[in-house]
Amino acid sequence: DGTARVTCMAWSANSGRFAVCTAERVVLLYDEHGERRDKFSTKPADAKYGRKSYVVKGMAFSPDSTKIAIGQTDNIVYVYRIGEEWGDKKVICNKFIQMSAVTCLLWPAENTIVFGLAEGKVRLANTKNNKSSTIYGTDSYVVSLASNVSGKGILSGHADGTIVRFFFDDEGSGESQGKLVMHPCPPYALAWALNSIVAAGCDKKIVAYGKEGNVIQTFDYSRDSSEKEFTTAAASPGGQAVVIGSYDRLRVLNWSPRRGAWEEAKPKEIPHLYTITSLAWKRDGSRLCAGTLCGGVEQFDCCLRRSIYKNKFEMTYVGPSQVIVKNLSTGTRVVLKSHYGYEIDEVKILGKDRYLVAHTSDTLLLGDINSNKLSEVAWQGSGGNEKFFFDNENVCMIFNAGELTLVEYGSNDILGSVRTEFVNPHLVSVRINERQQRGVEENKRLAYLIDIKTIATVDLVGNYSVGTVSHDSKIDWLELNETGHKLLFRDKKMRV
After folding, report:
1. Where is the major localization of this protein (predicted)?
2. pLDDT per residue over 446-483, tens digit each?
3. Partner of 322 for a Cys bridge, out of 238, 261, 294, 383, CB 3.0 to 4.6 A?
4. Residue 457: how many CB atoms within 10 A of its CB?
């Protein structure tokens, strides 16, 4: 009936748990279907000040989904071990005492919690050695924190409008660190998407900034009397969409790769919802949760389209570059994602319903559903004329325009490619690390036909020719042994 602010929410990295912290400072744990399964109370830094002496301002799951970090205004960060099963005992396994109130918190990488303080510092807590250290200091209250899609870079928004960027690893991008932007108001709503940074606050404007802080786009609602201040924002896990919460409304921006700009989708308007106080996106991109000032949590399905494939699989397109493939009989799921943000055209499941194949404009996505090994390799479209062979569990063989290309599942580089006209799996043999040999780390060999009477063998690790075997009559079958050192072949006269 009154304010019962949902202060923070978090999805676990494995998408199996969703945590909500209520105004009573109790953490409620839900499963992925929204059923409440567990709960635990947080505690003050010092019991003598009582249970109401603090507010929880930040909450995040560990990358392995077994712990939750809680940042509080009574100058402390607690880490709770919540266990692997529902109902496991909740144990405080770390605590980090600070000099001022914790205002926001992220857990981007193993053992590394990042949090902002009211005094303006952005600090790091190491759960392994139980120590906390300052990453950088400012003179202005930290109002928001956001990480990039990989979790290797962070942004902090400050009360004076500053947005600061820091990289643990810039992954070769060469982007600058330090003060990036002076936003016109405190950027309480801050999100780091794939191609830009989106910030908004009490001036009713959403601004998209480029990689070096230049303004790309501004969405101005300052003359819209129904719009209130923007309070919180979340980027989709793939970084292709940003949702910004305000009063009774969620605004949605979608990145258009073709235009290289943000496009505004129809806003989600819900009367009497009141102010959106927190947003959390499920890690596979399929759900978005919004917490409100009056203690409600709304869960939204966010997919572009859904389809059933061969009556066996459900395909959920959660973004232009991300598809969840679910086996309807076993319930197992694979998240197929273009790491470069390219739009996925269509997903096919081939090779006895085990292997995924999908094209984007510039890449080819392949995956083994059983082992969950996925690959994305550079691939120039050939109008879908490729022939795929899945006879080998480790390698996909692709024949296209007189060329054989090999892709090892789980690797994002092409293993090797050779020219050959013989597109029959009986005339190609690939061996990948099938038998351990002393002193040999990587052993990857290929045998194929150069012409109908000549076999060539290639070492795929060093990418050099091992040798050729010429024969006097047509060859119709060949195979390397497990180590790739011996070759067996048969000719048309039935000689082996």
Report:
1. other
2. 999 988 999 999 998 888 888 899 999 999 999 999 88
3. 238
4. 19
